[in-house]
Amino acid sequence: MKEIHHRARVYSLFDVAQLFLSSRGSCRLHFVVEDSKPPLYRGRKDDCLFVTKEEAVAHFMQSEAFGKLYETDEVEADPPKGNFQVVAKCGISGEWLGPPNFHSYQSNLRRLHRERFSNMPFERYASKVRTERGEEAVNAWMESMKKRVRWRPVGGSDDDWTFERSEIEHDFLSRAFSDAYEETRKTELPGDTDARAMSEGVLAAASIAGSHTRRHPAMLIPTICRMLESDHLAIFKTKGKLYCGPARPHPLQDVDSLSERPAAIVKWLDDKERPKLGELWTALLPEGTEEPPKEWLVDLFWLLTQGHVLLFADDSMVLPKRSKQGGSPQPPAEGAKKPKKRKRKKRKRTSFKARRPSHAKLISQISRMNHGRLLALRGKSRLWGRRLSRRDKIRCLQED
Questions:
Q1: What is the pTM for the complete model shown?
Q2: Is 99 exposed, middle or buried (0-12, 13-18, 19+ CB in 10 A)?
Q3: Which residues on adjacent β-strands are paired with residue 236?
């Protein structure tokens, strides 16, 4: 928008839409959840959005806000004892998980998936785990088990230290979850939000919406029009395409009323077909002039902001002109057939016709008639009267 104001150029709205879509930071992600579905969890202190509480807690444990509530300490511990031949290892992060027959193997596998790869299905993550055989692999796992991480709330006592991450997660859920996250059914996120700060389903929905919008940029044109109009920019249509610029096309009525330099620019553009800006300066300025003087730029800028000249993004220029009015019709030649006048069709006046009652209404009317009116029935009404009399549906016959 600043470029349109300062450079007074005309841009296609489709190009503006593509420009917005080329940068994720210029877009906003809008999420709405139906009332029948569970709400989303939006971070109060950072731009994150999750579907479940478990995903929100796993993100909090890896964020900078975790260090403000909990302390982390690494202590040495005795390695596990036993005869191990095979050791499992994460195929993505390279972290040791332990022997498959070790008592904490499944808990370590679940914990690592929950903490670092929760956006991946567990079966898919488990398929990437590989096993290594040999003394070197076992010793490497033993070394990793000599150091253990423990946690406690900030300002807690020595008795509050725990090696179980699940206890810290439970404490966070019961004590500080509502301060870090809020439930919402309608929210917005910046377009450049980190993929790790969103659930897998939310990220997939944003990716699908983004790819669909890039294939159909016309979806953004109504929103772009409102944005440009609020910034006092003109939107107009030329040759079937929408453009935005500093002003709408405004053809000049009298070129002679202009001063010398604007008149020279308009007269040079009058008989040209979309010339370039460089051709204008080459034709009007003396030879050897590298840059146009300031007074020429000021006069051209005035013509552009008034809509008397259009300067497009590709440096092509157009002089708006008034549409030519047709002359007086010429008389037909001798012997030529006169065009037949098209007769206007007269509308037929339709008389008001009473609507015929429906079957249900007709049956209701016949069932309440007396003997005299029953004998006067004709046509379909008489047939219905006979049917109702056989079924004992007429009140006057029931009384007799």
A1: 0.57
A2: buried
A3: 243
